[in-house]
UniProtKB/TrEMBL annotation, chain A:
PANTHER family to which the protein is assigned, alphabetical: TRICARBOXYLIC TRANSPORT PROTEIN
Keyword check for DNA-binding: no
Record has Isomerase as a keyword: no
UniProt xrefs under InterPro entries: DUF112_TM (IPR002823)
UniProt keyword annotations, A-Z: Membrane, Transmembrane, Transmembrane helix
Membrane-traversing stretches: 17-36, 42-66, 106-129, 135-156, 163-181, 201-221, 256-277, 312-339, 360-382, 388-405, 412-441, 461-484
Span of domain DUF112: 17-436
Source species, domain of life: Bacteria
Protein name: Tripartite tricarboxylate transporter permease
Source organism: Planomicrobium okeanokoites
TrEMBL record, chain B:
Protein's organism: Planomicrobium okeanokoites
Keyword DNA damage annotated: no
Name of this chain's protein: Bug family tripartite tricarboxylate transporter substrate binding protein
SUPFAM superfamilies referenced in this protein's UniProt entry, alphabetically: Periplasmic binding protein-like II (SSF53850)
Matching CDD domains: PBP2_Bug_TTT (cd07012)
Keyword Signal on entry: yes
Phylogenetic placement of the source organism: Bacteria, Bacillati, Bacillota, Bacilli, Bacillales
Transmembrane segments: none
Family to which the UniProt record says this protein belongs: Belongs to the UPF0065 (bug) family.
Entry keywords, A to Z: Signal
Secretion signal, residue range per the UniProt entry: 1-23
InterPro entries found in the cross-reference section: BUG (IPR005064), Bug_dom1 (IPR042100)
Length: 496, 326
């Protein structure tokens, strides 16, 4: 307890509050920009942290990380262009809200949702860090495979009315995920002798290409349409009581869900926010409003992905195991600073851990304020004429792409995926299954093979543990739920 | 609004802008312009940290007056960065490791160590073989005997790809014990961290990885390291026996070095011998090594040349024996 209070005092020192605010703001900005994500921001800052007090460096890096979760949804809402994988779910209802003239309300709601998710997860961190890290260890290859299968089946179930297209999109994504050297056999798949492709496609390039470039190209096709010229309404900046009433339970439910998924190394914000979205859609009394601007469809994944980013710090700090791209970079930076996260960190340097935890409380409050204040400024993006806005988006897309691999080869990939995204939009294909398949495809395949290798080829490993069985049941439910509901309604109608 | 976008764009530009090398300096002697250290990987990884440490130490200790920049050129397990190095002059260096040998042996690259000028071997990590504390295998011999009896009965965690030092160090040890490395059951994880998670969760029986990945866990009694690949026991882990003590005649370093483009002049090589030789003597370098769990392994350009030849021979055999030769 002493260490906790000491940590609170340390995190409230003016210098550390300054780092929290700087980190949070920087995180919000990089989160907003397509391609520039928290991993890049933390990596670029490594040389800066060389001279810093290790505790301040840790606070700064963590603030960038969860700050990006706040920022990521801004561009999803305003431009239909997620800044990162974990912000994809925010496009589903955030962008429709903006189109209805509710952009301000959407951003305020998502900031509050992120805030509550972050605070809940930080509290969870304090109480549950140790037991949860034990739980995460139970996830072997079979369980990871099933978790990813659940995510994919959940996202497919979203494509109501265009199920076949959803499946096609997912399979294209799974195919794209096979590009690169196969780690198990050393075989080069679809690399065409280009060394740059041997490590596989960077999924962020697929996201930026299909969403950002594709969106701009699509809008260019319609730029002369008359109805586009009418000025979009921005609406009020604060959300209504009705929106809040619809969102509050989804926010409270999905904070813990995202937190737990975040603790699993490798799962992270993308899977957490997608699962939250589909869960809420299935629980909702108005599932037909999802995808058309339902406030809870925005609030739930926002609460979830921010909670996941806090959860991802648990395996990093308790076991020295990075659970995401950003935490991997953070681990590298911490080692350079002479901090070795691992089982001994809590015992040897408890004050450092508690300072970080307390800084996350302070940081989430700071980010809530920053993001509410930014709403007024950001909604003006909608007033920006297309001829100014689109070139800027394209430029940012190219810059973001370059920072991912420092290679011009990626520019070609970006353009290819941009045009591909355009075609998908014209043909009205759902994009999310494709993107998610690209994100999880490689891991899913590898975990499947590892599971079978370790069981000497016996499929029993996929139902050999309680966690695995639970995941199978959830997967079956997510696929059959729409059918069950339909049957249930029919019955109800008959009885009435 | 425009102002806001301008600011964010400028910030973005500033973030990517710091990776280009600058203009030339004066003078007839080497170096004549700013220097560049290529990290053939993304920021944050081991190669990047090595490159940035070299940059920082050379400049902080006034060993080199010219500006040094670090450029990240990730891709193809070093291939992209090294290909770039091949076309540069002596003002550009690149960080390397045994991948400069194994890429070619595994058939993923045409480049070999002979396409470059070896300048120095800087430091090394050691390899380790670890099991759960309550494992039925409490010594290297126990484990190897079981592997001999039934090679596929033991699940071995390795990452991020077969053919790396983690894998090949076990190949060498297994061979010494008369185990057929081709029959072993390897589970390929994404990286060293994931391998350790898998061991802690009981999803694999044994892991072969860098010592730094399991050292903290060993000190906390969460894993048991059966063998370390150094010649002598390490100070901070004096309860962990070496391979040598357990009847395997091998020292297996996981070294990091630095090399230059082909056809460097003697004068240029001598310049780097002097500067890098001085750098590894500094206290800061010791600190870097300590933080990263590296051991001193400095070899100058001549020694490195010879070392590379020996290593090439060793790796050719190991890749052959692992069944991965192309």
């Amino acid at each position: 307890m002493d260490a906790f209070l000491e940590g609170l005092m340390t995190s409230l020192q003016p210098i550390n509050i300054m780092w929290i605010v700087i980190g949070g703001f920087l995180g919000t900005v990089v989160g907003m920009l397509p391609g520039l994500g928290p991993a890049t921001a933390v990596a670029v800052l490594i040389p800066v942290t060389f001279g810093m007090d290790p505790v301040s460096a840790l606070i700064l890096m963590a603030a960038i990380y969860y700050g990006a979760m706040y920022g990521g949804s801004r561009s999803s809402i305003l431009l239909n262009t997620p800044g990162d994988g974990s912000a994809i779910a925010a496009t589903f209802d955030g962008y429709p809200m903006a189109q209805k003239g509710l952009a301000g309300q959407a951003m305020a709601l998502s900031a509050v949702a992120s805030f509550i998710g972050g605070i809940m997860a930080t509290a969870g961190f304090i109480i549950l860090a140790k037991p949860l890290s034990e739980f995460a260890l139970k996830f072997g290859p079979a369980e990871y495979f099933l978790l990813m299968l659940l995510t994919l089946s959940a996202i497919i179930s979203l494509s109501t009315g265009r199920m076949v297209k959803g499946f096609i999109a997912m399979f294209i994504g799974l195919f794209l995920a096979t590009i690169g050297v196969d780690t198990q056999s050393g075989v080069y798949r679809f690399t065409f002798g280009i060394p740059h492709l041997s490590e596989g496609l960077e999924f962020l390039i697929v996201i930026i290409g299909i969403y950002a470039v594709g969106e701009v190209l699509y809008n260019f096709m319609n730029i002369d349409d008359d109805h586009k010229k009418e000025k979009k309404k921005v609406g009020k900046i604060w959300f209504t009581k009705e929106q809040w009433d619809r969102s509050k339970w989804p926010i409270l439910r999905n904070g813990p869900l995202g937190f737990i998924i975040g603790v699993l190394p490798g799962a992270g914000g993308s899977i957490a926010s997608m699962l939250s979205y589909t869960t809420e859609k299935q629980l909702s009394k108005h599932p037909e409003e999802f995808g058309k601007g339902a406030p809870e469809g925005l609030a739930a994944p926002e609460s979830s992905n921010n909670a996941a980013s806090v959860g991802a710090l648990i395996p990093l700090l308790t076991m020295g195991i990075p659970g995401s791209g950003t935490t991997a970079v953070m681990l590298g930076a911490l080692i350079m600073l002479g901090i070795r996260p691992g089982p001994l960190l809590f015992e040897n340097q408890p004050e450092m851990v508690w300072t970080l935890v307390n800084s996350m409380f302070v940081g989430n409050i700071a980010l809530l304020i920053i993001n509410i204040l930014l709403v007024g400024l950001l909604v003006k993006i909608l007033d920006t004429p297309a001829k100014v806005l689109y070139p800027i988006i394209i430029m940012l897309a190219f810059i973001g792409t370059y920072t991912l691999g420092y290679s011009t080869v990626d520019f070609f990939l970006l353009l290819v995926f941009g045009y591909f995204g355009l075609v998908l939009k014209i043909l009205d294909f759902p994009i999310a299954p494709l993107i998610l398949a690209v994100i999880v495809g490689g891991d899913m395949e590898q975990n499947f093979r590892m599971a079978l290798t370790s069981s000497q080829g016996s499929a029993s490993i996929f139902y050999g543990s309680p966690v695995a069985v639970g995941l199978i049941v959830l997967t079956a439910l997510s696929l059959c739920y729409p059918l069950i509901i339909k049957a249930f309604k029919r019955r109800k109608q008959q009885t009435e | 609004m425009k102002k806001f976008l301008f600011v964010t764009a400028a910030a973005a530009l500033a973030m990517v802008g710091c990776s280009d090398s600058g203009a030339s300096g004066g003078g007839e002697e080497f170096p004549q312009k700013n220097l560049e250290v290529v990290a053939p990987a993304s920021p944050g990884g081991g190669w990047d940290l090595t490159a940035r440490s070299v940059q920082k130490l050379l400049q902080d200790n006034d060993l080199v007056e010219e500006n040094i920049t670090v450029s990240n050129k990730p891709g193809g397990g070093g291939e992209v960065g090294w290909k770039y190095l091949q076309g540069q002059d002596a003002h550009t260096l690149a960080v390397n490791s045994s991948l400069v040998l194994t890429n070619e042996l595994l058939g993923s690259s045409e480049l070999t160590y002979e396409d470059f000028t070896p300048l120095a071997t800087l430091a090394t990590e050691w390899q380790s073989l670890a099991v759960a504390p309550d494992s039925e295998y409490q010594s290297l011999e126990d484990l190897m005997n079981q592997m001999k009896k039934d090679p596929s009965s033991i699940n071995i965690g390795v990452g991020p790809a077969l053919g790396n030092d983690d894998h090949l160090s076990l190949v060498q040890a297994a061979k010494e014990f008369g185990v057929d490395p081709k029959k072993l059951n390897f589970l390929v994880y994404e990286g060293g961290g994931d391998v350790v998670t898998a061991l802690l969760g009981g999803h694999v029986d044994v892991v072969t990885t860098s010592l730094s990945e399991v050292k903290e866990q060993h000190l906390a009694d969460k894993v048991n390291i059966l063998a370390v690949s150094s010649s002598e026991r390490l100070e901070e882990l004096d309860d962990v026996p070496t391979y040598k003590e357990q009847g395997v005649d091998m020292e297996f370093p996981h070294w990091r070095g630095i090399m230059g483009p082909p056809d460097m002049t003697e004068e240029e090589i001598a310049f780097w011998d002097e500067k890098l030789g001085a750098m590894v003597e500094t206290d800061q370098w010791n600190e870097v090594m300590e933080n990263n769990d590296w051991s001193g392994f400095y070899k100058n350009s001549e020694e490195t040349q010879q070392f590379m030849e020996e290593q090439h021979e060793l790796y050719t055999t190991l890749v052959e024996e692992s069944g991965m030769a192309k």
